[in-house]
Design goal:
Structural class of chain B: mainly alpha
Largest interface: A-B, 43 and 52 residues
Number of helices of chain A: 35
Oligomer: heterodimer
Number of helices of chain B: 13
Largest sheet of chain B: 2 strands, antiparallel
Strand order of the largest sheet of chain A: 6-5-7-4-8-13-3-14
Strand order of the largest sheet of chain B: 1-2
Distance between the termini of chain B: 82 Å
Helix content of chain B: 55-70%
Radius of gyration of chain B: 42 Å
CATH superfamily of the largest domain in chain A: P-loop containing nucleotide triphosphate hydrolases
Number of strands of chain A: 21
Largest sheet of chain A: 8 strands, parallel
Strand content of chain B: under 5%
Shape of chain B: flat
Shape of chain A: globular
CATH architecture of the largest domain in chain A: 3-Layer(aba) Sandwich
Order of helices and strands of chain B: HEEHEEHHHHHHHHHHH
Number of strands of chain B: 4
Distance between the termini of chain A: 66 Å
Radius of gyration of chain A: 30 Å
Strand content of chain A: 5-15%
Number of domains of chain A: 4
CATH topology of the largest domain in chain A: Rossmann fold
Chain lengths: 805, 370
């Protein structure tokens, strides 16, 4: 269908539109017009992606700036889905407009997924594929080939050089499959095609990391212009992604490997000195000038990049004491050796980067400045030495990255040395965590560079938390409710068992038999009444294991077994995928199954349980993080000190976003239905932190239920759902045809005209009076509301009194 | 785990067996290794006691034979003794070559200096006997030549370290205070809440009236209070911050520039456009402007006579007082196309104005601003 938002004609590839989709598009357009960032929350399964794409593509094509869209999503499957959506949209647009638009949309994923080279693509691990690919495609390999040396090359990559650099692939939308097929036909590398074409396409769809991880972003996303529209979809976890991108863990093993890497480097340097000393000399000369010049040869084959170095530093010359290759290697060795010594300590240490640097300087005479250049200098050296087996140097690179980060940032990072894996462990296994505490650091370049950044997800409540944590300001900040013709999902909060004992996964009571039995009863009851699939979420693996074994002892599992197949998620991905497969089979053939999984596990994010795959989701306990973790403690403290977010606020926010994410798994569209049960006493108070669309559907009568009451209303709900329901019934309410949309717009216009007219007829003075009247009215209502004759002043006074006590 | 430990043992057997007496960690769990920076040979503390208690003796490691004293032994910081030695050398060299970056004119000089020092260290650490001797010689010579400066730089370095330490301590203290304050605040809030609840209960018990209203009232009080507290905390935070800043200025001694206050945007880049040669009047009498002045239709369209006057006056005066000769001389390069007109304009200008004030005339140089 085709309609206008303001002056912008939008082509929407479906004959019907949801009201919230329309509202979403309007707000998106507002954001783009105003040129700022926004946070939008839209219920899951209401076609977020398609409304986003159709609006932004329309915007691109209509306005002369043709702003590029960078769409970032989380997983491969989501990227695939978005690409397919985009392809369908463009096809529809072509049909409607009658001509093919000059449009190119590409997806980018790792080499492992896109490789066509017959032997490289058979490698299992992504790192190996990357390394082997680089050794076949690096710049110096080509040079060698040109010199007539016999070196292996990748024909798919080299074929690209025969094509015009700005036209490697024809216009159109290329799904990952599509580009693989095209690459196979034309014998060209899909990965490099995508990457090189990035500056020539209208829509790019790739993973967060290409934009957030500074190590990758520098290489991949550097050329994107400032007016790009950046979208982060499924962004409820974006702060954790940011933090992970800048954190590193160093173990004894990696240090050992780093030492070996440094020794290899030393040997290579000696070899090169004998055979080809000129090369080292030219590198040296370049470094004297400054890093930027040394970098002009920097290309896509650079194997690593510096993490988040400020630009002014890059323009500076490399410090004199690491300019020579052998000096630099000695420098690295010294640093690694220092870290090894630090790892020998047998107590937990947490220190800030400045104090680490001070200690480092005292013992090894390593200054801050050369340390900052470490990563960059190593890259340059590796390039000069023309190393091909790059994976050997990965640990050394990690150490160098760590060095650069620790010397660059004073605030927002913390070093934590944990000598033992757990509190009870006897054998030391030290890990040096270098953790980023401030999510804003990684994402800051994105906000600085791009004028419009859109952060959106199905569950991103409370909205104001994200701008606070990520350090940006929004133009629009909106949460949409779900319009439904019938109540198609039933959220409930169960706080007590049938015996009126409060249930909670709180630390003190979680292992009490009464609580465990009540949870077990809840499970049994719902397994009896739920048709097909049922998903149960626990706060942690540990708790899940203990509670399952207790249920086994109480005979609860045997009872459940009569009604449903029981499957369990484990930390092992392979096992879990088998469990999922079985679960789906059981749901499809009518037997039904229960999947027990963990709220922070793989299942809770990204795997949908639509229709028969999930009719009930049961959230046992509030999924709090493990609060004893030192890293979490440090982060909480940082948040309190810097952003004034209180520990409990953050913990509860984090738990609730995971809970909401779990709940959202079962409802993937308007024709779907499901029951959502939150089983913990503590959910009662956290109700307001649920996303708006869930909270609105949560009736006041259903927030404080006992098990039997919950079972009663669930039964009633399911009976209602069993009634025949024609798609026609939804029309005009939860789905709009073009006529409904026009009606709505007309009404809206009338409303605005009426308001305008009112404002006009009332003159300036009248308006003032009117305002006065309104204010008086307000006061009147206030005083009337206070039945105890409290005036506002009195109230104030009573407060003062209270304060005085 | 245990396998890990074994492999570690395998990696570096000398870590658990004394190379002199061959006693190992299994027999003597408190085995401790010491080294002497004379020769960096490792031996266990028992050996050191045994051999060197009765005065200086030669190193027991074969083919070493250096005379060592017990006083010189200490525990090694690094597992790799080569690094240990390198660091010791660095300590010695660093104490002598302790120039600071601000002593150098350019970055390049500073970097060259750093590289030179690094080369010297390398010579001492890795070089053969001859280069080592040369390097030591150099070190000594430099030390003698620059003893005064070295001392001063050492003092500066010490002071800096002291400052750094003090700042860190202050920061830690401040953080601790903040943590305490936050805890206290939380407790207060909790106590308040409890008290309020109790009050509400009391009131519900004693007063008669609508129970809902009482509850609402209490809710309101709590909300108001918490918001007031938050505001207070925010302002406190602000003041804290400023206080902290004043504390931080100690650190500002090094180098810290106050951010330049952002000036309002000037579209003409500092060129002053107010006329210096004429005064713009309210209105000028001109018969062919009379119509425009009177006619409503002109004015309704937004036509402004003032704008017109300003532009005409500007255009009339814009060529005056421009001394192309001077400018050309200033620029120091010939401007061939201007040659033809230069004398004429120069003559007029010099006839009108004394040559001595060419500065303000630059104002007129800019192109038509409208």
């Amino acid at each position: 269908m085709k309609f206008n938002i303001g002056d912008l004609p939008v082509l929407f590839p479906y004959p019907r539109i949801y009201p919230e989709q329309y509202a979403y598009m309007c707000d998106l357009k507002k954001t783009l017009d105003a040129g700022g960032h926004c946070v939008l929350e839209m219920p899951s399964g209401t076609g977020k992606t398609v409304s986003l794409l159709s609006l932004i593509v329309a915007y691109q094509q209509y306005y002369p700036e043709h702003r590029k869209l960078i769409y970032c999503s989380r997983t491969m499957s989501e990227i695939e889905k978005a690409l397919a959506e985009l392809k369908a949209l463009m096809k529809y647009r072509e049909e409607q407009l009658g001509y093919k638009e000059d449009f190119r949309g590409l997806g980018l994923t790792s080499r492992k997924n896109l490789c066509l080279h017959p032997s490289v693509k058979r490698e299992k691990s992504g790192a190996v594929v990357d390394a082997r690919c680089r050794s076949l495609t690096a710049g110096f390999v080509k040079e060698k080939k040109a010199r007539g040396e016999d070196v292996p090359v990748c024909i798919y990559h080299d074929n690209l050089d025969l094509l015009e650099p700005h036209n490697l692939i024809p216009n159109g939308v290329w799904t990952l499959d599509g580009i693989m097929r095209y690459g196979e036909e034309h014998k060209q590398c899909p990965y490099f095609t995508s990457r090189r074409m990035m500056s020539f396409c209208n829509v790019i769809i790739y993973s967060y990391h290409y934009l957030l991880d500074p190590k990758i972003a520098e290489r991949v996303s550097k050329e994107l212009s400032k007016d790009c529209i950046v979208v982060f979809d499924e962004a409820h976890n974006i702060d954790n992604v940011c933090i992970e991108a800048l954190s590193t863990d160093i173990t004894e093993d990696s240090l050992r490997k780093a030492t070996r890497g440094a020794q290899n480097l030393e040997r290579k340097i000696a070899e090169m000195k004998d055979s080809d000393a000129d090369k080292l000399k030219t590198e040296y000369a370049k470094l004297v000038e400054g890093l930027r010049d040394a970098d002009e040869a920097r290309e896509e084959d650079a194997f690593m990049s510096n993490p988040a170095l400020p630009d002014d530093l890059l323009k500076e010359a490399v410090p004199g004491n690491i300019r020579r290759a052998e000096h630099f290697v000695a420098f690295l060795k010294r640093f690694v050796e220092y870290l090894k010594t630090r790892m020998k300590v047998r107590q937990v240490i947490s220190e800030t980067p400045p104090s680490f640097l001070a200690h480092l300087k005292e013992y090894t005479f390593i200054e801050k400045k050369p340390l900052r250049f470490c990563a960059e200098r190593l890259t340059s050296l590796v390039r000069t030495l023309e190393l091909t087996n790059i994976e050997d140097y990965q640990p050394l690179q990690e150490v160098a990255t760590f060095a650069t980060l620790v010397a660059t940032y004073e605030k927002g990072f913390l070093l934590i040395l944990e000598p033992y894996e757990s509190d009870t462990a006897e054998v030391p296994n030290p890990v040096l965590h270098f953790t980023c505490l401030d999510a804003a650091i990684a994402i800051k370049p994105v906000f600085d560079r791009f004028s419009s950044v859109i952060i959106t997800s199905g569950t991103i409540s409370p909205l104001e938390m994200y701008p606070k944590m990520l350090g940006f300001t929004t133009v629009v900040q909106e949460s949409y409710s779900m319009t439904l013709a019938r109540r198609s999902f039933l959220p409930m909060i169960v706080t007590r068992g049938s015996d009126q004992v409060a249930i909670s996964s709180g630390f003190q009571v979680r292992n009490e038999p009464s609580v465990v039995r009540n949870y077990g009863n809840l499970l049994t009851e719902f397994s009896k009444l739920t048709p097909d699939g049922m998903v149960v979420f626990f706060p942690s693996y540990l708790y899940m294991e203990s509670i399952i074994s207790m249920w086994q002892g109480m005979g609860i599992l045997d009872e459940v077994w009569k009604y449903k197949l029981i499957l369990v998620e484990t930390p092992d991905a392979q096992e879990t995928s088998v469990a999922l497969e079985t679960y789906r089979t059981a749901c499809c053939n009518g037997r039904g199954a229960i999947l027990l999984c963990v709220a922070r596990g793989k299942v809770s994010e990204g795997i949908d349980f639509d229709h028969q795959y999930g009719r009930t989701v049961l959230c046992i306990g509030v999924p709090f993080q493990y609060t004893e973790s030192r890293i979490l403690k440090a982060r909480l403290e940082f948040l309190r000190e810097t952003y004034r977010i209180r520990e409990n606020d953050f913990l509860s926010f984090d738990a609730m976003r995971h809970a909401a994410q779990c709940l959202g798994r079962v409802l993937r569209g308007k024709d779907d239905y499901g029951i959502m049960v939150l089983a913990d006493r503590r959910f009662l108070k956290k109700r307001n932190q649920l996303p708006k669309w869930i909270n609105q559907a949560l009736l006041d009568s259903e927030v404080n239920l006992s098990t039997d009451m919950a079972v009663g209303s669930a039964k009633k709900f399911l009976k209602g759902m069993a009634q025949p329901f024609k798609p026609r019934d939804q029309e005009g309410i939860s789905t709009w045809s073009i006529r409904d949309l026009e009606n709505f717009k007309e009404k809206q216009e009338e409303e605005s005209i009426r308001q305008l007219r009112e404002a006009q007829t009332a003159g300036a003075g009248v308006v003032d009076q009117h305002m006065e009247g309104v204010r008086n009215g307000n006061e009147e209502t206030v005083t009337r509301g206070d039945e105890y004759g409290f005036d506002d002043d009195e109230l104030e006074a009573s407060m003062m009194e209270l304060d005085g006590h | 785990m245990s396998r890990n430990a074994i492999s570690r043992l395998g990696d570096n057997p000398s870590d658990d067996i004394c190379p002199v007496c061959k006693s190992n960690r299994y027999l003597n769990p408190s085995l401790q290794f010491l080294i002497n920076p004379e020769c960096y040979h490792k031996m266990c503390s028992t050996c050191v006691d045994r051999i060197f208690t009765s005065g200086p003796a030669s190193c027991p490691v074969p083919r070493c034979g250096k005379t060592l004293r017990k006083r010189g032994f200490h525990k090694a910081f690094f597992a790799d003794l080569k690094i240990e030695r390198e660091v010791d050398v660095r300590k010695r060299v660093g104490a002598v070559f302790n120039r600071r970056q601000d002593e150098f004119e350019t970055l390049l000089d500073w970097n060259n200096y750093l590289e030179e020092v690094e080369g010297l260290v390398f010579d001492i650490v890795e070089g053969d006997a001859k280069t080592r001797a040369q390097a030591e010689e150099k070190l000594k010579a430099y030390k003698e030549a620059n003893s005064g400066e070295i001392e001063m730089n050492t003092r500066l370095g010490l002071e800096e370290g002291e400052l750094e330490k003090r700042r860190e301590k202050a920061e830690r203290e401040a953080a601790r205070q903040r943590r305490l304050a936050a805890l206290k605040e939380e407790e207060e809030e909790k106590a308040d809440l409890l008290k309020n609840r109790k009050e509400v209960l009391d009131r519900l018990a004693t007063e008669d009236g609508d129970a809902n209203a009482i509850a609402m009232q209490a809710q309101k009080v709590i909300l108001k209070k918490s918001s007031a507290r938050r505001n207070l905390a925010d302002t406190q935070m602000e003041t804290n911050k400023s206080a902290m800043d004043s504390g931080l200025t100690i650190r500002g001694l090094k180098k810290k520039e106050a951010p330049v206050v952002e000036k309002p945007y000037d579209p003409f880049g500092g060129v002053d456009l107010t006329p210096s040669r004429y005064v713009l009047q309210e209105s000028y009498d001109s018969e062919w402007l009379g119509n425009a002045k009177r006619d409503m239709r002109h004015m309704a369209g937004g036509y402004s006579l003032q704008e017109y006057y300003a532009r005409t006056m500007f255009e009339a005066f814009s060529g005056l007082g421009v001394f192309i000769e001077d400018e050309v001389a200033d620029r120091g390069q010939p401007a061939p196309p201007a040659v033809g007109t230069t004398p004429a304009v120069g003559a007029i200008a010099s006839g009108e104005e004394p040559q001595s004030k060419p500065k303000p005339q630059y104002k007129m140089e800019s192109d038509d601003v409208f």
